[in-house]
Amino acid sequence: MRFTKCLSLAGIALFASAIANADITVFAASSMTNALQTAKQAFQKTHPDTNIQLAFAASSKLARQIENGAPANLYVSANQKWMDYLAQKDLLAANSRVDIARNTLVLIVPKDSKLTKVNLRAPQWTSYLGDGRLAIGEPNAVPAGRYAKQSLTSIHAWHLVEKKLAPAANVRVALSYVERGETPMGIVYSTDAKLTPKVRVLAEFPQSSYEPITYPAALIKGQDNQESREFLAFLQSSEGQKIFAQYGFMRP
Question: Any residues with CB less than 8 A from the CB of 243 and at least 6 apart, and which?
């Protein structure tokens, strides 16, 4: 079976004009899509004249785009690694970095799958893949894939699935593989699994088996205008945190 990787930043090029005219341009991890879209709508109720543009992709790709001069005011990463990357390049506005949410990792199957339960600590669960593949974010680039590899390694299953992966450009693409039944299983964030009735959570990976999944946000040096500072403050506020909770995120 052939899996096509999406060009996740194509939309940025297509909407370059809109981004250029935005008061706030947010580059954010794909798993934040729905929550930040809702946060944008809520923020604009009190800031109706503020033009906010959201661009979503894998955290790694967005970080490299920012490094190359992409016009982002605010960056939200799905892990600390890529925020550290920009910090080391001295691209973050001073004292603006803050964790805004947490997440967990789950194993999903299509809704009509006959599987009802697996024990992730018993590597035999991997046999249920059969001739199929395991949908996963690209382990070397996508945070969700990196966390998945950590967990699979910890529970002694990585060597059993390493050659049976369907690597995806971001976690939402991995989710879509399972939604469409292209793969019998997938590993995504718990928040992603809640977005569609087309998949079921089969098991939760032990949180001790992977690094804490935290979402740091920071303003970009030289791009930290008043509007972006206010939007970041909103994401940290009680109202912003309620929106994250609505989509299954936990407090940082």
Answer: 35, 38, 39, 42
